[in-house]
Amino acid sequence: MDIKALLSKMTVEEKLAQMSQFNSNCLDKDSDGGVTGPARSLSLTEADIAATGSTLNFKGADEMIRMQDEHMKQDRLGIPLLFMMDVIHGFRTIYPIPLGVGASFDPDLMKRLSEMAAKEAAVGGVQVTFSPMVDLVRDARWGRCMESTGEDKYLNGLMAKAAVEGYQGDYSSKYNIAACVKHFAAYGAAESGRDYNSVDMSEYSLYNDYLPAYKVATDAGVDMLMTSFNLINGVPSSGNEWLLREVLRDRWGFGGIIISDYNAFREMKSHGFCADDYECARAAFKAGTDIEMMSNCYIKFGKRLLEEGIITEAQIDESVLRILALKDKLGMFDNPYRAASAEEEKALFLCPEHRALAREGAEKSAVLLKNEGVLPLSESVDRVAVIGPFADVGMIGFWSCHGKESEAVSAYRGMCDALGEERVSYAKGCDTASNAKSDEALLREAVELASRSSAVVLCLGEERNMSGESNSRADIGLSDAQKTLVREIARVNKNCVSVLYCGRPLALADIIDDMPACAVMWQPGTEGGSALANLLLGRCDFTARLPMSFPYTVGQAPIYYNRTRTGRPAHDEHAIGKMYSSHYLDCPNGPLFPFGYGLSYTAFETSAPEVSKDSMNADGSLTVCATVTNKGARDSAALVQLYIRDVVASRVRPVKELKGFERVELKAGESKVVSFEITSDMLSFKDSSDNDVLEAGEFHAFVGLSSDEKRAASFRLV
Ligand code: GLC
């Protein structure tokens, strides 16, 4: 399609409509939408709707085809609608929430899962997914931890690149869809962990911690980027010229589409940055946001801004060309329906291959936190009680697109499928609500069942809507009713594993001692129960590691491993500090379970690291290695992690930063040497002007099994 020729035929009104996106119910005359429905609040005209560029949130292939048919009859120049959706961890076959996939430390897994999601979404009529979300998170109170891959920029970057490649491929297949990295920027740093709250931080922190993963995604060729709801240093992202023009466009060279978050333009009034919709349009235009999601400032005021000379038609044309170019790249002008197919939906959704991949994702995302002789359960175990408010529900989590809980394998169902119903029993134990009080009858029934069972699988955690967008929590512990259930069952049966279904790290300090074993399944998706059965029965091992620190208590939030040392460091991060050191009177500084931590069914050990030489120069390299040994009686895989510390620098650097990891398969008793090459790009950091800084001096290299590793080898950059 000659999109420049097409652009030349468009009126200004049509261009502004192309830069606007509305929910399907605003455009779909068959729903209560259209100009009489939700669109009325947007004062959209028939002409606006006829020329709208894109839509979001619709039911699937049939609706997409019907809407596109309708649209193509109305759009004067035959420009097809672009259909977008939040395909975050699966479309209909749901895999673990991104925080869980982050725990896998397996970018290839993320890529394969994203490919599967793209395929199901494409036949469901989607051409763009609002994913990956790469917001760095350090505060478990924030509900959207579940959507991130965690607290580390290096891991988040690897996962972002894998997701973009998985979704977009090379667009040679109709199953490839465009990705949209979000939320730009630093949305995960919302003050107090409260969603939509303000973000205020130094550019030093932005450049070193919060922006890198977005840049990995833009360098990986992501075709769209979404601005965040939050302020950044006093300016809302959607109207932030420094962020969008200076950093994203000019410095990073991002040529894709910038889309706002939902109604984020008009929220600039609530922020107190714009007085009215006219000013919202002006601010967003000047910052360079190309598509306005679910508000009509561009449609209402774009022409006036042109007439006033505040913007130029050339600027509008830049945005419209980006949108037309993506539609062309997706082949929409040749086939406005692209891959939408109700028949293929039936063939692909929940097919055995997709369920198998979702199961693999759940197995590789689960983290074993504690195991005092409980796991693995014997295959001959005869009476297993699956108890708890999440024993038969709670698998698919927030942002689960068209996934259905009813199609998910629950923990109870998974254990029944694995062992036979005659060997498995169920009791609810208590309700799921965060403030649920113990129900005496439910509790008594559960304890009685546990007392006559040979093993107990206790399923606890958070309801689906206790994390995700807008769902931040000031208390991230288990409910009282659930803690009572843990303690009462522990009294009658020590052969009990607590399984946590959650969208964030939970504060477990007050209950972990009552749990003989504990594993985190996150929200594992459609095959969560079958994955759990395979893990608990030892048919596969726990290989995932924490992508986010689990605090002792919410009072430690935000807490993360790559902290700075302070002028008065505590002597031990896992003990109460001494007077006049940086410490709490009532809690250690460090987390209960650190970033990178996780157990397996065997024990691994690493030797102290050694470097191949004492120094290197800027264009040189050296190798750091350590021997990892499987000390147990079972083959498994260790995740060996490389962290580096810049000991003295012109800007204080973290006590350590993840710079590499390798999964090492080891037979029982086997040892292997793991080595990492260190190059100077791993030693530099950003100054406050976003310049790379590389400074000579001493560095420490840690090679271990979590961020808690203390042993390091020193070397110098000369
Ligand atoms: C929501 C979310 C964003 C999502 C968008 C469209 O408010 O913040 O992540 O992509 O709206 O659903």
Verbal overview:
The protein is α/β, with parallel strands linked by helices and 718 residues long. Among the domains are: 175 residues, 3-Layer(aba) Sandwich (Rossmann fold), CATH 3.40.50; 116 residues, Immunoglobulins (Immunoglobulin-like). The chain is built from 22 helices and 27 strands. It has an 8-stranded parallel sheet with strand order 9-6-5-4-3-2-1-10. Helix 8 packs antiparallel against helix 18. The longest helix is centred in the N-terminal third of the chain and has 17 residues. The protein is globular, with a radius of gyration of 26 Å. The structure holds alpha-D-glucopyranose. The site of alpha-D-glucopyranose has 7 residues, from loops.
Q: What are the defining features of this structure?
A:
single chain, 718 residues, alpha/beta, Rossmann fold, Immunoglobulin-like, 6-stranded mixed β-sheet, 18% strand, globular
